[in-house]
Automatic annotation (TrEMBL):
It holds the Pfam family FrsA-like. The keyword Hydrolase applies. This is Alpha/beta-hydrolase. SUPFAM superfamilies: alpha/beta-Hydrolases.
């Protein structure tokens, strides 16, 4: 398979950026310009390349906005948001540029949100200890609505995702298909981690419960949005897929989409630690980055503590038993053949999960692109939510 970089890690992240092209997160020409300036395992060259593109697309957006070109301004601000996110991605959270650049990609996205066809509501979901989880509720535009109230998709991010990046999968396509999509920043994600230092939690069903409580109350205060709280699905990819399966244990969830989820993060982290240990004497950038991100996300300082905490991130453990026994809604899984994984094969995890889903109908498919992920996912949701559409 063609690679944009001889660094596996950089190539993976470049493919991630390029994958958002179909939903407005990247432009081929801007991508080529940035890639040509990135040096292997050089975080500064990565930053400079993507910062150049983010600043450039911001200027393009400003020019388009001044001219009254709504669709072009929105497009430029979306790309700027994704490029600002990418720019600081390779830095440790201790780098002084991380928080300011996080605020830049948020600002760019919110400028784009004001130009979208459907209403985008900025929400703060009450969580714990006075903390609120920020998110966006993307509503379908009037022309995309189907008869009746709008079903809702709660989209859970992964270990290193941001709520703004989540737009480029379900946040882009869902509203155009008549769905309301809520994507939020949970513990251990985005600015919740970078500013508040709140780590990931394995029992994401607690986070989902707070989100569902919020949706129910919000739907009563905004009856004009016509949200269907009787048709709520949860979706996520990779770590977000694991979170989605945990969230699906809440009986208020009526469907679940888990894209390439892991069964247990412990096996993934063991592999990272083994490779990192082997690379200590080589000054390996990827190994150092992986360990740093892992410890920060878990809220610990030592690698051994990280490994111990990772044991809790499993769909089957001594404390929770077989989590999947509590999933009662239909589940759509992707895994085998779905493309290259960063750390572990999705095949083994997906097949294991499918075997343990004893109480509900489950299906596995092979998917390789963001656009196809969305298409297959919404075909599944349409079926179980009985969405009626006319063929084109």
């Amino acid at each position: 398979m063609f690679q944009f970089s001889t660094s596996f890690m950089f190539d993976f992240e470049l493919t991630r950026i390029l994958g958002s092209t179909s939903s407005g997160g990247c432009d081929a020409g801007e991508f080529k310009s940035a890639v040509g300036k990135i040096r292997k395992h050089d975080a500064e060259s990565w930053f400079m390349a993507w910062n150049e593109q983010s600043e450039r697309t911001t200027r393009i957006g400003d020019e388009a906005a001044k001219a009254g070109f709504k669709v072009l301004a929105k497009s430029a601000y979306l790309r700027a948001s994704n490029y600002f996110r990418a720019a600081s991605y390779m830095f440790s959270n201790n780098d002084a540029r991380v928080v300011p650049y996080s605020e830049k990609y948020i600002k760019s996205f919110q400028r784009a949100a004001t130009l979208m066809d459907g209403e985008v509501v900025l929400v703060d979901i009450p969580y714990e200890n006075g903390v609120s989880l920020p998110g966006y509720l993307c509503m379908p535009p009037n022309y995309a609505r189907l008869p009746g109230k709008a079903p809702i998709v709660l989209y859970a991010g992964g270990a290193d995702s941001t709520k703004e990046e989540l737009y480029f999968l379900f946040g882009h396509s869902g509203p155009q298909l008549g769905y309301a999509v809520l994507y939020l920043e949970g513990p251990g994600q985005g600015l919740i981690l970078k500013k508040s230092k709140i780590p990931l939690r394995p029992n994401f069903e607690v986070v989902a419960s707070h989100a569902l409580d919020f949706i129910e109350k919000f739907s009563q205060s905004r009856t004009d949005l016509e949200l269907d709280v009787g048709r709520i699905a949860v979706a996520g990819a990779a770590t977000g897929g694991y979170f989605a399966l945990r969230a699906a244990t809440d009986v208020r969830m009526k469907a679940c989409v888990a894209i390439d989820p892991f069964f247990s993060i412990g096996c993934v982290m063991n592999d990272i630690v083994n490779r990192s240990t082997d690379a200590i004497t080589k000054g390996n950038f990827q190994a150092a980055w992986e360990m740093g991100v892992g410890k920060r996300s878990m809220g610990v300082e030592k690698s051994t503590d990280m490994l111990r905490r990772c044991k809790d991130f499993s769909l089957q453990n001594a404390k929770d038993g077989n989590v999947l026994d509590n999933v009662k809604c239909p589940v759509f899984l992707t895994g085998p053949g779905s493309g290259q994984e960063m750390y572990a094969s999705a095949d083994d995890s997906t097949l294991r999960i499918e075997k343990l889903l004893k109480n509900v109908p489950g299906s596995i498919t092979e998917i390789g692109t963001w656009a196809l992920w969305a298409q297959k996912s919404f075909l599944f949701l349409d079926k179980h939510f009985e969405m009626k559409r006319e063929p084109l």
